[in-house]
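Quick illustration for those who missed Monday's session on complexes.
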Amino acid sequence: MALMGQMMSAPLLISSIIKHAARYYGSTEIVSRRTEGDLHRYTYRDCELRARKVAQALGALGVQQGERVGTLAWNGYRHLEVYYGVSGMGAVCHTINPRLFPEQIAYIVNHAEDGYVFFDLTFLPLVEGVAPHCPNVKGWVAMTDRAHMPAESKVPLLCYEELVDAQDGNYEWPLFDENLASSLCYTSGTTGNPKGALYSHRSTVLHSYASALPDALGCSAHDVILPVVPMFHVNAWGLPYSVPLVGAKLVFPGAKLDGASLYELFEQEKVTFSAGVPTVWLGLLQYVQSNNLEFSTFRRTVIGGSAAPPAMIRALEALDVEVIHAWGMTEMSPLGTSCKLLAKHDALSDADRHKIQEKQGRVIYGVDMKIVDGEGKELPWDGKAFGDLMVRGPWIIDRYYRNDSNPLVDGWFPTGDVATIDEDGFMQITDRSKDVIKSGGEWISSIDIENVAAAHPAVHMAACISAYHPKWDERPLLVVVKKPGAEVTREELLQFFEGKVAKWWIPDDVAFVTEIPLTATGKMQKLKLREQFKDYKLPAA
Ligand code: AMP
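Prediction with adenosine monophosphate bound:
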């Protein structure tokens, strides 16, 4: 006969995280740069009390469990209160990326059927443009106090601080099934309409536990953590949950993400740990290097969202900042792998260690992965064979929100990434499957080409895309933004590839541009670049 364990049954709820932070790290600070222009400070104890008031206020507005509540907001304490207030009361916190086109935002708000939308003042013009197309939204809440409320607005607004102040905080976080929906993020979807990933309390809490582990993000109560990655991009990679879970001090940069503003905040608040996409680190590195600065406390950062160029990993290392290269996606909450070395790597030379750090790393417990060929047959883990990367686990989607098609293949989620896995389980992304360059039937990794180009001293940003070739079908074209004041010719750049990649991988041409378009999440927008260069004639073609 089966024998059941005899342990307490406590549902894994998001509210338990902020309750824990308030009780055990009550005086630990949360510091935020506000859209009002000043720096705001309070503690986890204050945050939890105000999150309870947000939950009460939502109840007073008639928000029901399961109802979606949207946010259009930067990283800040009020956004954190909304995260916990909304999910904690059993509604669904739907973070919306304000960098999307207004039509996409309206589509997402309507598809999610958001009942209310909370927004930072910066986004008032966006709200005014979108609101007429979102007839089902019952209220737009400006996240500020009465004194800062806009004098006039084309949309009737509610005032966040008034809603909060009207409540007494006398509220018990409700207990419910841990499998209920907690939050919702839409993929930035380069083709077709964005699709929603609907997380549960259980998936979020498990992801928070696992992502805080030493070989994942390695967060601790010792740290001061500044998430640069926005709370509107896959829940800032889970940091709004994992940081309170470990009791670290939190620092929120608000809308100011330029190098100078970030550096000032890093130094002033003694930040030890951060996380963001490569384009953010480009800006910060450029500022620090051109002003001959150093970081006095900043020692570790996670880079993900797109491949961290080796030159960036080394530049940060020279500033005493360890880079943890990580990979994941919206559909994975998002963390899948992180690149922490093994004990056996301790004796490696710097060059050999760098080779491993360029990989996206090992899975964290909870995620299972494999690579398969075109027929779905699993490929060997030899670091050479590359195939479609498939994943499964308790914080990976089973299906998309309000979408009938089944995205899974034999119970695995196809990531759309092409990767290798080595003998030690270190995974390396070769490419997004639609970005791979197929030259004469052989594959060229656009990421590898970009990584080489990014190491050239005159290159600020480089994207490699395919251009039409009559004989090879596709050949690599390198699109480059030069550093301010730097000079380099096409020939010099192509020369730079000699000996660094196979000869036939060397791009056929270089196009210099003043800007590479970025997606709403700060990734190079290759689809747009490919459109821009669709009639490009390669010199040899
Ligand atoms: P998103 O859902 O917007 O976070 O995008 C997920 C996709 O970003 C993944 O499927 C990868 O193609 C890409 N990505 C994320 N992290 C990395 C990384 N470290 N290196 C290369 N690509 C990455």
